[in-house]
Design a protein that fits this description.
The protein contains 16 helices and 5 strands. The longest helix has 20 residues. It is of the alpha/beta class. Helix 8 packs across helix 11 and helix 11 crosses helix 15. Strands 2-3-1-4-5 form a 5-stranded parallel beta sheet, sandwiched between helices. The N and C termini lie far apart (60 Å). The protein has a single domain, classed as 3-Layer(aba) Sandwich (Rossmann fold).
């Protein structure tokens, strides 16, 4: 009986938050994810992607009466057992299990999902919503936006593309463990993005890790701009991290309006009580930083100037 009810569920206007890692995607999505109607892939979806019933724990621990949730370590100290408390997760094991093994590490540019993948992903999302007791689905995915692929599964999906000054993104990427340990200093982090010409350009720049990261920031945005052309009006929204830092409540209201969701007091409370918002974009005050940022800026042209970020 549960299976029949789940399969009958209509998945209405899922909302995907996309953007290059270290662009503010986490803090913006986690604020939006506090909306009472939204279900999303959890840490349970990552641990055991083939057991959607584990998401019942979110319904028990995070509901209209109370909210006992986990938090990212990057946002400060966590409580004992934090990893087992419900929290949003990019859950690439979930996506690789249901959408295909290449999902996490590939741009999937111009690729559409097969009928079998469409059925599998929609079934997994339906069950996630069912067990969490939520009406609308949302997810955060960093790196390549994969909008064309996701749109082939969810034709009425909404995409919130979060963008931050690429120079700040690169400086952050070069410091974080997942980028360093995943080979981001030596090779492209995702497949199907940089061309042979791009690789030669990087090698001509001395194979500098910062230039490689800068070129991938640029490529992610270029591909997203190409993919948005296949979307209908009202399905794509760009949000600047800098704007969110300056006016988080206003940006949140704009995201909910775009997503056709009512405003959420819980989301605004998360912003008020949550992690400190800081804009660490380049200041240009240190001559050594300015010289390095100029190299990065050149590698990101013409995208970075088109976005209005100045040298």
């Amino acid at each position: 009986m549960v299976g029949r009810n789940v399969m009958a569920r209509v998945i209405e206007k899922p909302v995907f938050f996309v953007g290059c890692p270290r662009s503010g995607t986490t803090v913006i999505f986690e604020a939006a994810s506090r909306h009472e109607r939204l279900g999303w892939p959890t840490n349970y979806s990552e641990m055991l992607p083939a057991v959607p019933a584990l998401n019942l724990l979110r319904r028990v621990l995070d509901n209209q009466w109370w909210a006992v949730t986990g938090r990212k370590r990057q946002h400060g100290r966590t409580v004992f057992g934090n990893r087992y408390l419900p929290q949003p997760d990019e859950a690439y094991r979930f996506w690789n299990t249901h959408a295909g093994a290449s999902f996490a590490g590939n741009y999937l540019q111009d690729e559409a999902a097969s009928d079998a993948v469409v059925a599998r992903v929609r079934d997994a999302v339906s069950k996630t919503l069912f067990w969490q007791g939520r009406a609308r689905f949302s997810a955060k995915l960093t790196g390549p936006t994969r909008m064309h692929f996701l749109h082939s599964i969810f034709p009425d999906a909404r995409f919130v593309h979060i963008i931050r000054d690429g120079r700040a993104v690169v400086r952050s990427l070069l410091r974080v463990g997942f980028w360093r340990e995943g080979g981001g200093l030596e090779r492209p982090f995702w497949q199907g993005g940089l061309t042979e010409s791009d690789i030669r350009q990087w090698q001509d720049a001395g194979s500098a890790p910062g230039v490689l990261a800068a070129m991938q920031w640029k490529k992610i945005i270029e591909v997203a701009w190409a993919e948005r052309e296949s979307l209908d009006a009202g399905q794509y929204l760009e949000v600047r991290y800098e704007d969110f830092v300056a006016d988080p409540h206003g940006v949140l209201r704009g995201i909910f309006a775009f997503s056709q969701l009512d405003d959420s007091q819980r989301a605004h409370e998360y912003v008020t009580r949550g992690p400190e918002l800081r804009n660490r974009n380049p200041s240009g005050r240190d001559p050594r930083d300015a010289e390095y940022d100029a190299v990065l800026y050149d590698a990101m042209e013409p995208v970075i100037s088109r976005l209005g970020y100045r040298p």
